[in-house]
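Format notes (please read before filing issues)

Several people have asked whether sequences and structure tokens are stored in separate files. They are not. Every record keeps both together, in the order shown below: the sequence lines, then the token lines. Line labels are part of the format and must not be stripped during preprocessing.
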Amino acid sequence: MSVITAQSLRKNYGDVQALDGFDLQVAQGRIVGLIGPNGSGKTTALKSILGLNRIDDGDITVLGCDPWRQRAELMQKVAYIADTGILPKWMRVEDLLDYVASVHPCFNRAAAVERLARTEIRLDKRVRVLSKGMHVQLHLAIVLAIGAQLLVLDEPTLGLDIIYRQQFYDGVLNDFYNEQRSILVTTHEVREIEHILTDVVFIDHGRARLACSMEEVAATFHKLVCAENTSPPLTPLCRRTTLSGAEFIFQGADPAQLEPLGQVSVPNLAELFVALVESDKGAA
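Then the structure lines:
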């Protein structure tokens, strides 16, 4: 079952083209990483998915809804955690839980209280006195108590230390994710989430540069580290010099041809993104 289907999305802000024929497919039970630099169109794509802006052209369906026309219905099925605090800072935690329970038909207050009991967050504290890490924990507790079918994470651990970041993703995986629920996540900390992804989408200049499963990444792309003067028999996507020697990244190469030349491995997502963008520039 398709959770998100977006085809040929276009969105302009004046003379700036944020989305230029962007495509995205998210299936049920998948964790999809949307990876791209600042200005690549990530935020505009997420806003389109959440019904926060209206696309200029293209088609998009999220959980059977048109995000713009059926946003109220969609928000009963989708949860969202952004990189900036959006919870009302003047409220006490217990009052915030009461408020969410009064406006969201799917919110389970008891489940949120149970999760918060495993943290240092007290119900009588105001949101404004909570640390950045506690703020994210509170937001996560509310989101997990909604039981949404789709969780959208936009740089959710930005500014958190490594312990809080690990606890956050552990909580998402253990308490939210299953074969009926899907996650769409963007982050600059690509290396710390790529081991949990099932699929990856690279976005650059408003277009999807790559969209495939992590299994396809491992089968299609290879990194060769070898002596600096080595000339590989195949044309690489990119080449760079490091302290370890020369590094090449190949697409569709036979690992058996590369192994006699040096160390062969699968490039990480950051390396692969740079390689694909550099190959595009070279082709242009």
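For reference, the curators noted about this record: The mean pLDDT is 91. The CA atoms of residues 195 and 214 lie 9 Å apart.
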